[in-house]
Write a structure and sequence with these properties.
FAD/NAD(P)-binding domain, globular, binds flavin-adenine dinucleotide
């Protein structure tokens, strides 16, 4: 039986950040990481950006976790956890004893009930390799989903001279986040760049015949593509925690120090539900800054610090020649105020509840996240004129 000071289940960005957090406090303790993927930790955001839009290759995205003296056990999935005896067992029956455990199990893409493995549910290095191989020979690609991943991968394929058809149930690209008029303008922006946007529709069946996939839409429309990639949301990986008796509510529940209800079991990243005092809400966040900041804080706390995780995470995206950074709640169902009409402009989208700003998207504006955090912390009341003046002043500065 292996016996370690620190055991990390999961091999993603939160796991890597936790290992670095542990090492910042404890340069001696043994750290072992069980990593279900065959690859050691790497940055996921480039999979839908830089690897399609720059000369970067898979060699550029590794996180060098092993340089921190971490024993990485690859292609190994933790199958069960016994918190009473502090033991994890993997799928081969090997057991690992720990003094402190981190669950950084991340999330798994949701799947359609058809299409089997011919649809690439885009999340991993392996998914990138598969899509790149198809893109090397194929021409026409279907992107299912108009959210964060779908919008990025559609742009990535398009700038690689692929014919791209996007299909999604919302009215427009990023329609769950952007206010309707601006999302409609983003739709037009995608179409101007050559993407065929089929909004308000879902596929109803996918048939595979040799190298081609035939796509059937709900409205009866049919077409063929060389490959299909989907980004239709993710489900947090909570089964291990739930089977061990830890609290799970669409995410592994942790306290403000990132402990589960068991004192030597912590959790961090996409899989976790946590309390955020700035929004006075319990959140589960599926973005890089949260995975990194929360992972590091969990690692430090595992090594003996007792700090609270009160970070309000931000996120970002790049879409063709435009991009944004965002912080807080950015849900199109909230009241919104914006000074933007066209995706080529610079400006802000504010999201309000009860006359208080709960989130800000900085469109084509970078490095202003702290100003957004200050606005979210302010008591309000906020109104449209005041927020547009704030935007004008801040973006000029
Ligand atoms: P994951 O990255 O999901 O890692 C969890 C790991 O644990 C996986 O390797 C999984 O296989 C493994 N695992 C699960 N269960 C077990 C088990 N039982 N035993 C062992 N291992 C297990 N965020 C942004 O803010 N901006 C972006 O531009 C951006 N771009 C993205 C692009 C893509 C293509 C993707 C997929 C995500 C992007 N994100 C972005 C989101 C960001 O990458 C994630 O929030 C972050 O990677 C989450 O890290 P994590 O470690 O919590 O989970």
């Amino acid at each position: 039986m292996r016996d370690d000071d620190y055991l990390i289940v999961g091999g993603g960005m939160a796991a890597d950040a936790a290992a670095k957090g542990i090492r910042a406090v404890d340069d001696r303790g043994s750290i072992r990481m069980l990593c279900a993927e065959p690859d050691p930790p790497y940055k996921r955001p480039p999979l839908s950006k830089d690897l399609w839009t720059s000369d970067d290759s898979l060699d550029d995205i590794g996180l060098a976790t092993d340089k921190k003296g971490v024993e990485i056990v690859r292609a190994t999935r933790a199958a069960s956890l016994d918190v009473a005896t502090s033991k994890v067992t993997d799928q081969e029956g090997n057991t690992y004893r720990y003094r402190q455990l981190l669950l950084a199990t991340g999330a798994t893409p949701k799947r359609l009930p058809f299409g089997n493995d011919r649809v690439i549910y885009y999340r991993t290095r392996e998914d990138y390799r598969r899509l790149r191989e198809l893109a090397d020979v194929g021409h026409h690609f279907l992107v299912i989903g108009g959210g964060f991943i779908g919008a990025e991968i559609a742009a990535g394929l398009c700038v690689n001279d692929k014919q791209v058809t996007m299909v999604f149930p919302e009215a427009a690209v990023c329609g769950l986040m952007l206010p309707p008029a601006f999302a409609a303008a983003l739709n037009a922006y995608y179409e101007e760049r050559g993407v065929t946007v089929v909004a308000g529709r879902k596929p109803s069946a996918i048939e595979a015949a040799s190298d081609l996939l035939t796509i059937h839409l709900e409205n009866g429309h049919t077409f063929s593509v060389d490959g299909a990639v989907a980004g239709i949301g993710v489900t947090p990986n909570t089964d291990l925690a739930a089977a061990a008796g830890l609290d799970v509510e669409d995410g592994i529940v942790v306290d403000e120090r990132l402990r589960t209800k068991h004192p030597n079991v912590f959790a961090a990243g996409d899989a976790v539900r946590f309390y955020n005092p700035h929004l006075d809400a319990r959140l589960r966040v599926e973005h890089e800054d949260n995975a990194l900041s929360m992972g590091e804080r969990a690692g430090r706390n595992m090594a003996g610090e007792e700090e609270l995780y009160h970070h309000l995470p931000f996120f970002y995206s790049d879409l063709f020649d435009v991009g944004y950074e965002a912080v807080g709640l950015t849900d199109a169902s909230l009241e919104t105020v914006t000074d933007l009409k066209d995706p080529s402009e610079k400006g802000c989208i504010f999201y309000l509840q009860d006359e208080r700003v709960r989130g800000v998207v900085f469109w084509n504006v970078f490095g202003k996240i702290d100003a957004g955090r200050e606005l979210i912390a302010a008591p309000g009341p906020h109104n449209a004129d005041g927020l547009r003046a704030w935007s004008k002043e801040r973006l000029a500065g």
